[in-house]
């Protein structure tokens, strides 16, 4: 048992000191990202977007997932009904998760990505509420929604 404990102590102490030295070297070096910066970002609940704004990581993950699933769903031609339903169900689930987590949240409500995603969701809802759940979406509506998704993605 002493052998196992001693080995564990050697591994832990030997394994940790190089990390500390590397972090110290990077921190005192030029403007490169260090291990310390990586550790900070891992525990930070915010993330910088492409546009340079700092937003909650959870929002960005949810919004990116929504953009991806809506795009997949809209890109489906509808000929394979099973695939179409799977994509539509995934899109509905992403919309629910996004709205449940972020609808009305002041931290993101004024963001361009939020506004664009809200517009895309409203367009979808308006179309399906008028045309029914199995209606084929016209190209102009699809194009408008895809433009909104592109706008949202550019700010994420």
UniProtKB/TrEMBL annotation:
Gene3D superfamilies found in the cross-reference section: Photosystem II Pbs27
GO biological process: photosystem II assembly; photosystem II repair
Name of the protein this chain belongs to: Uncharacterized protein
One Pfam family of this chain: PSII_Pbs27
Coiled-coil annotated spans: none
Recorded superkingdom: Eukaryota
InterPro entries: PSII_Psb27, PSII_Psb27_sf
Key words, A-Z: Signal
Signal peptide: 1-23
Organism whose genome encodes this protein: Acorus gramineus
